[in-house]
Amino acid sequence: MAKRPSLGRQKIKIAKIEAKSHLQVTFSKRRAGLFKKASELCTLCGVEIAIIVFSPAGKIFSFGHPDVRLLVDRYLSRNSGESSGLSPPPSNGNGFSELNFHLDQILEEVEMERERGEILDGAGKSNGRYWWEEPVEKLGLQEAEQLRDAMEELRKNVGQIILRFGFLDPYNHDGFIGCSGPNDNLEFLYGF
Amino acid sequence: MAKRPSLGRQKIKIAKIEAKSHLQVTFSKRRAGLFKKASELCTLCGVEIAIIVFSPAGKIFSFGHPDVRLLVDRYLSRNSGESSGLSPPPSNGNGFSELNFHLDQILEEVEMERERGEILDGAGKSNGRYWWEEPVEKLGLQEAEQLRDAMEELRKNVGQIILRFGFLDPYNHDGFIGCSGPNDNLEFLYGF
DNA sequence: TCATCTATGTATAAAGA
DNA sequence: TTCTTTATACATAGATG
Known about the structure:
Two copies of one chain form a homodimer. The model of chain A is unreliable at about 80-150 and about 160-190 (pLDDT under 50). Chain A has five helices and two strands, in the order αββαααα. The radius of gyration of chain A is 21 Å and the shape is elongated. Chain A has a two-stranded antiparallel ribbon with strand order 1-2. The termini of chain A are far apart. Chain A has helices spanning about 20-45, 70-80, 95-120, 140-165, 185-190; strands at about 50-55, 60-65. Among the domains of chain A are: about 20-80, 3-Layer(aba) Sandwich (SRF-like); about 130-165. The interface between A and B is large, with 100 and 98 residues. Strand 1 of chain A pairs antiparallel with strand 1 (about 50-55) of chain B. Chain B binds a DNA duplex through helix 1. Chains A, B: GO terms for molecular function: DNA-binding transcription factor activity, RNA polymerase II-specific; protein dimerization activity; RNA polymerase II cis-regulatory region sequence-specific DNA binding. Chains A, B: It comes from Genlisea aurea. Chains A, B: This is MADS-box domain-containing protein.
């Protein structure tokens, strides 16, 4: 009788998981599950959702539809009447600033994808500072190169639009309006 | 074989619910479920989570452990600082799904800008559903048209990339991986 | 609207590859 | 270790009060 190939899902107590390897697995699974649920809720009910998760090491994972910062800023402005001062959108008083910020978001996304491709291109080196960091990438090299090229093309396209409208400081090629500087993409390539 | 008192849970397609009463019920249930999942993740893994939900009517629901405002401020300071990274994308453990979601976000942004142009085109009737509708009147019509065209071009560009990599179901123009399109004004009427 | 019930879909804890 | 598999816990669609 009864030699089970698996015990199946076991009931667990909702309390802090102490075993680190176990915690890491659970975190990854449940984080994915949480984001999926949020995504479904967005689609089913036509709502907008932002989720921000800080790991114990202070790393950030976020989900946002249509955009985390957009929703966060709206949340702050709703709850404090005026802009809280912590909220990024620079107010130039002409309406362009918000649009500017918005496009900045797009550019950031594109830039991240482009850099992602570059990272994939070169031998990805893990910084490995934390025990939960997972050094993995599933994209094949060829796919990564294609993606990088496609993203580069897209980025140029966005850049033209932005330049056309004068959204960027012409003297600062790295500096986008809202945020600037290269981002640390390693965080999002490796878990937690 | 007695008659079943209930059919039990039925499988549903993840697409926008059109029936308003049904939508309301689903929203309430799944919102509660989402917050519960977040709560469990906080406890199990010792992470900090903030969730902000905007209903189509603009009503805000939020979850935060330890506190939404605290986490939001931290998130913004992280992302505004010159040294630290930008917001990481949602991490599903699958590289492609992450990328897919990212491109979805980009598409979403572009789509919003495109609609912005259209709204501006058709004589400024602002119903205040989106953040950008307030300052929008300050944009000149000519600028708006330029923007619309540029965004349309960009959108096509993104679409090509996505199709090239097969990220989207070519037969389903609404169903992106992460989230679906922007809200219609239908549920705008319902108070949730 | 809001809670409850039931049957079933889905997420996931553990173990295996 | 990362990905699958398995069995089960949990979430929830639809009906009902």
